[in-house]
Amino acid sequence: MKLTRRSALGLMAALPLPAFAQSFPDQPIKLIVPFPPGGPADIIGRLISRVMGERLGKPVVVENRSGGGGLVGIEAVARSRPDGLTIGLASSGVLTVQPHLMQQMPFDASRDLAPIGLVISVPQILTVNPSLPVRDLREFIARAKAQPGKLSYGSAGIGSSLHMSMELLKQLSGIDVVHVPYRGAAPAVTDAVAGRIEILMADVPAILSQIRAGTLRPLGISAPKRLDILPDLPTLVEAGLPGMICDTSYGLVAPAGTPPERITLLRNAMVAALNDPETRQAFAAQGGTLVGSTPDEFTKAIREGSARWGQVVRAGNIKLE
User: Fold this and answer.
1) So what's the pLDDT on residue 22?
2) Is 135 exposed, middle or buried (0-12, 13-18, 19+ CB in 10 A)?
3) Helix (H) or strand (E) holding 152
4) In degrees to the nearest 10, what's the CA dihedral of 92, 95, 97, 99?
5) Within this chain, do residues 138 and 62 fall inside the same structural domain, yes or no?
6) Domain limits at 179?
C-alpha cells in the first residue's frame, strides 16, 4: 500500500535526545505485531526488535495479537498507557483503509496514536497456484473474465493491504474474483499453496520462499521497477496493467500522549535498526525498501495514503462483512 513520502536513511541523523530521557526505558518494551507469527509483519518486527533493544538498553519483546486485518493489535496499542513501553507495528491497511470501511472505528488514528516513524515499504507479488493454467498476467485476466466469480483469492483480512491491492487490480482489469479473508498473510499463503484458493497477491517476504520452491507461480510485482532478487519477474505495469503500483507499508506507532522525548528515543532506535548492516541485508533479501521517516513525514504519508485508498473503497463499494 503506497505511502508516498520516502527519506534516504543515509541522510537521516538520529534526533538529539534530551538528557532527562536517559532513564527511559526502565523495563522491557512490548512491540505489538497485529498479525500472526510467520507473516511479513512478524518478520519485520523481529528484525528491528533486536537492534532497537540493544540501542535502548532493554529488550524489545514482540507480541503477536492478530485479528481484524491488523485492527485488534493496534487498538491495543491505542488503549495502552502512553509511557512508551507499548508500541505497535501498524500496517498501512489499518491506518489508511480501515477508517473508510467502518462506520465507527474503535480508535481514531489521528487522535489516539502517536506516529514514531515509517519503517519499510514492501511491494506485492501476484501469484497463482500452479494448478491454474495461466503463465502471465494476460492469461490470468482472460481466465478470470471467462469464469466470473469462480476463482478466489486470499488476503490478510478485510481492509488489509493484500485485500486492497487485489481490489485495485480488479478495478483496473475488470475481473470478478471472490475474496476470502484470513487472520493474517501466513494462513492465506498456506491455503494458496494447498490449492484451497487459486490466487494470492501478497508481500514479497510472505511468499518469496514459495515462489523459489515452485509452489506458487508469480505473474507480476506491484513495484514501479523490477526487484534485484527477482530480475525476470515483470512489474504489473510492464505486464499490461497501467496504474497497478502499490505496496504494504509498516510503521511504528505509540499511544497518543506518549512524551515527545520518548518518541524521539524510540525513533532513534528504529533508525539505528534500519542502519544496522545485518538488518539492511535481511530486508534487501526480502525485497523491501527501508524508509526510516520522521513522525511528521509518517503523519503526512498516512494522510496521503488515506485519500488514495478511500477512493478505491468507494469505487468498489467495499464494506466489512
Assistant:
1) 61
2) exposed
3) strand 152-155
4) 170
5) no
6) 123-221
